[in-house]
Amino acid sequence: MASDGFFPIPDSIDLAHEAGARAVIQPGGSIRDEEVIKRALKLGMVMALTSTRHFRH
After folding, report:
1. Residue 14 DSSP SS3
2. Which domains does the chain show, CATH number per domain?
3. N or C: at which end does the chain have fewer Cβ atoms within 10 angstroms?
4. H or E element: which one contains 34?
């Protein structure tokens, strides 16, 4: 799964896992990144943080 926005809480990771996602790529930047990363690891998912957003507001 790929997102141009960060994941502020781990419930999105739970939903992605339930839908069959095995890897997530996202820019990171949430104050709760550590919590989200820990949830992905607990579920056996790969998470890549790019530190870059492509969409500009």
Report:
1. helix
2. 1-57 (3.40.140.20)
3. C
4. helix 33-42
